[in-house]
Amino acid sequence: MDIPWPLRRLLVSLILIKRPEQSAHAYASIWWDEGSPLVVLSKRLQQAMKKEWSHGPVELAMRYGEPSIETVLTRLSEQGFKKVTLAPLYPQFADSTVTTVIEEAKRVVRAKSLKMQFSVLQPFYDQPEYVSALVESVRPHLEQPYDHLLLSFHGLPERHLHKRDPTGKHCLKDDCCMTAPAQVVATCYRAQCLQSAAAFAKRMGIPDGKWSVSFQSRLGRAKWIEPYTEARL
């Protein structure tokens, strides 16, 4: 959240009061026997990566939860590791996701005086392997006839995008997200979402007009990225 800490703390407190009750039923409907889908899938990914990564251990850390980034980096430092590859598992870039992971890692290194350097895996929104994974996960659900496929991404306040436009000329102007230069796309969440969606639709062979993109989970009164999912539905 890019708001002053006192306001952020108040907002988080209000969310924690209302959100659990409102979300309990929704979470229960998707919960697995093994536990939280996010945790289960993350652990599966960790185990799969161990078979592919030959440069050291593969650890799993949560930005908000346990094991925390601080816990894992501290343990790696105690084991003598001085170089770490940090892989934020967010396909598209956003300050509220990727940047917070990087900043938290930096904070831990400073606060604990760890003799550690880390490199960061860049967003992978357009990587063929990521698009292929999307296709394989969705394909079984599209075997039956359907009228339209709505690809709904998590939303962000528009101000987050404006702040990250290095040129100050492209953000949210017409169809700039699909034609913006690489330096703009590199930090534009909306552009990366649209490009992920377009690559997915192309790989699936879904014609234009039969799919579209929207953004969900709007919070507060500030203007968020459009089109909103509820409006599109």
Automatic annotation (TrEMBL):
It comes from the Bacteria. This is coproporphyrin ferrochelatase. GO terms for biological process: heme biosynthetic process. InterPro entries: Ferrochelatase (IPR001015), Ferrochelatase_C (IPR033644), Ferrochelatase_N (IPR033659). It catalyses: Fe-coproporphyrin III + 2 H(+) = coproporphyrin III + Fe(2+). Transmembrane segments: none annotated. It comes from Pseudomonas syringae pv. maculicola. It holds the Pfam family Ferrochelatase. Keywords: Heme biosynthesis, Iron, Lyase, Metal-binding, Porphyrin biosynthesis.
